[in-house]
Amino acid sequence: MTIQGWATGPQHSTYDVVIIGGAIMGSSAAWFLTDNPDFTGRILVVEKDPSYQACSTAHTNSCMRQQFSNVLNVQISQFAADFVKNLRDYMGGDPRVPELTIQNYGYLYLADDPDFAETLRSNQKVQLSAGAETRLMTADQIRADFPFFAVDDILLGSINTKDEGYWDGGTVFDWWRRSARARGADYIANEVVAITRNRSGTRVDSVTLATGEVIGAGVVINASGPRGAKTAQMAGITLPVEPRKRYTWVFSAEQPLDRDLPLTIDPSGVHMRQDGPTTYLAGGRGDPDPAAAFDDFAMDHGLWEDHIWPIIATRIPQFEAIKLVTEWAGHYAYNSLDQNAVLGPHSKVENFLFLNGFSGHGLQQSPAMGRGVSELVAYGEYRTLDLSPFGYDRIARNEPLIEKAVI
Ligand SMILES: Cc1cc2nc3c(=O)[nH]c(=O)nc-3n(C[C@H](O)[C@H](O)[C@H](O)COP(=O)(O)OP(=O)(O)OC[C@H]3O[C@@H](n4cnc5c(N)ncnc54)[C@H](O)[C@@H]3O)c2cc1C
CA-to-CA distance for 143 and 108, rounded, in angstroms? Predict the structure, then answer.
């Protein structure tokens, strides 16, 4: 049987690696494994929805930034930038792979209180030490560079226009998936509905598919996005990850801006950026912000009218006259402990690997995280970036890994 051209049944009854979820993270892990000559095992990627309609990857805003407060997050994005700009080389020089660029309009953080201004200053130090090119801007400098902003209330801004802005995440995802499949990774349209552990509980040894097959697994990688906790639960493991709704609006302006709009993070948390040549994209969330049902993608129309648009039009008065073009709701895989990734083995179930909890920055983290997990599988350790601070142990100890620049 096939669904959208994908087989539902696996070719083998055991695999060295079973990846649960075949969107950008699962496909990155699969691709990096197939790219590693030291790994020759069999890979199964189980994806419940090959249309990818509901996953986070399909709803993303596809931007990357170097402006994090945690140096490891900066390094992760630096690898993302290198990977995106050299995609064809990474893909072995295949001439069919497009050359990609990053639309470097930068992220512009705006602080309207002394505490956040101080945070921007200390973040800049971290970013500069890691090689980023973050600049702090006074309100006058912001007015000079971007005359359309109303910034009378702003104490400080922070911008970086190197390797920061929009990139084509969909194309990278497509090529990882195509290339991993061409190199023998087995992708199936099916759902993992159960996971078994050995008698002592120290290892997972099989996954059960919705169609009933039980597949032996050497390693299981949880790449289930907002459903990450549900998948972990099948193995008897708790993971503080839940779907949180994030809304996107694309609009055109009666009077378009005369230069690119950086991805501007208003002090209210609402953000907006250039989209097409004369369209703009805004993002925001409801308040309160509860966990959403897995299949709840309903728009909150009042949110735009009553909250988002007024903020946008106050910050950029030219945006008084705008027209909505399209809108959607997507889900973050929200790590409620610290909004950071959870990566690597469970503390007690050693062959259950997390690739979870990426909240709002998973697209840009997909190259480094997929590579990192592939190293754990192939060598039992990280060989490039040491990603161990993202390990599950901190979750078990309830010790957040602080990242102050969360969107
Ligand atoms: C509105 C919005 C804007 C964003 N903007 C950005 C941005 O600008 N920059 C950035 O870096 N990140 C951004 N993100 C975050 C980023 O999109 C995600 O972190 C990333 O796409 C996560 O990918 P994933 O593969 O982990 O999860 P997903 O894309 O959700 O994929 C998980 C997959 O697992 C499958 N699955 C789940 N359970 C099972 C099961 N039991 N069996 C089989 N398959 C299963 C699902 O069908 C799904 O396809 C944004 C997210 C949203 C929602």
Answer: 13
Residues in CB range of 311: below 8 A, 6 or more apart: 266, 268, 270
Residue pLDDT, tens place only, 259-317:
999 999 999 999 999 999 999 999 999 999 999 999 999 999 899 999 999 999 999 99
Question: What is the DSSP code string of 70-93?
Answer: SHHHHHHHHHHHHHHHTHHHHTTT
Torsion-angle region of 380 (φ positive above 0: left; ψ -120 to 50: alpha; else: beta): left
Torsion of CA 67, 68, 69, 70, to 10 degrees: -140
| Longest Cα separation, the chain | 67
DSSP lists the bridge partners of residue 160 as 107
323 contacts 190 by C-beta, under 8 angstroms = no
Q: Could you tell me which residues come within 8 angstroms of residue 368 by beta carbon, excluding any fewer than 6 positions away? A: 75, 76, 79, 80, 384, 385, 387
Tokens of residue 75, six digits: 């390094």
* Nearest in space to 341 (alpha carbons), one of 282, 403, 291: 403
Best mutation site among 192, 224, 299, 406 for ligand 1 pocket (most ligand atoms within 8 Å of CB): 224
Q: Token pair of 192, please?
A: 């993992």
Q: DSSP code of 16?
A: E
pTM of the full predicted structure? 0.98
Ligand 1 pocket, residues with Cβ under 6 angstroms? 20-21, 23-26, 46-49, 52, 55-57, 59-63, 191-192, 223-227, 231, 246, 248, 330-333, 358, 360-364
**Closest C-alpha to ligand 1, atom 48:** 55
- Structural element, H or E, at residue 270: none
Which H or E element spans position 144? Answer: helix 139-145
The span from the CA of 301 to the CA of 111, in Å, is 28
Tokens of 181: 């499949």
What is the DSSP secondary structure assignment for residue 334, as one 8-state letter?
E
